[in-house]
Amino acid sequence: MPDTGSPSDAVVAVLYQLASQDQCTPETVVAKAKSKRSVLHDHFEWDDGVAGHQHRLQQARQLIARVKVIKTIDNQPTLVRPFVSVATQDDDHKYVIADDFKNDPDFHAAMISRFTAEQTTTRLKYIDLVGEGDVQTIIKAIYGL
Q1: DSSP state, 36?
Q2: I need a labelling partner for 104 at 20 to 30 A (CA). Which of 11, 112, 123, 133 fits?
Q3: Alpha-carbon span 142 to 107, nearest angstrom
Q4: How confident is the model at residue 1 (pLDDT cuts 50, 70, 90)?
């Protein structure tokens, strides 16, 4: 089973080395990871049967995420994703029809928490990349502030 925890400093160093050589691609990372001595090796599933199933699960997630429907929001036709991933009691995830849960206080609280976390992460990511001034300008333009 692949290691899904935070990458070690050694793994990060290998990825930085590849990027500094303009070679940090998924293909190159997998090639480097094939050796059992590679610090990258344990981050991958090498049993092709298991890996194939995991790949199909990822394809299913992507298929569900690509579904969009048109809804009217603020009198504007808007493409939205009707399915939302929610955690289950056994630490797995399932998809639910968002409209079916909009009046559920627990669902509402979970979505507000997710929105806040995603917005914070996105804001910090782009502040790091382009600077706070540009990010603030964009936020003001988007939200009409």
Answers
A1: T
A2: 123
A3: 26
A4: low
Residue 129 vs residues 16, 116, 124, 132, 136: alpha-carbon distances, Å: 17, 20, 9, 9, 13
Q: What is the pTM of this model?
A: 0.71
Q: Count other Cβ atoms within 10 Å, centred on residue 40.
A: 21
- Residue 71 and residue 78 in contact, taking contact as beta carbons nearer than 8 Å: yes
Q: Which residue from 106, 111, 105 is spatially nearest to 89, judged by alpha carbons? A: 106
Which pLDDT tens digit goes with each residue over 21-31? 999 999 999 99
Tell me how far apart the alpha carbons of residues 25 and 102 are, in angstroms, rounded to a whole number.
Answer: 40
3-state secondary structure 112-133: HHHHHHHHHHHHHHHHHHHCHH
Dist. CA 21–CA 122, nearest whole Å: 27
Residue 63 in contact with residue 34, Cβ under 8 Å? no
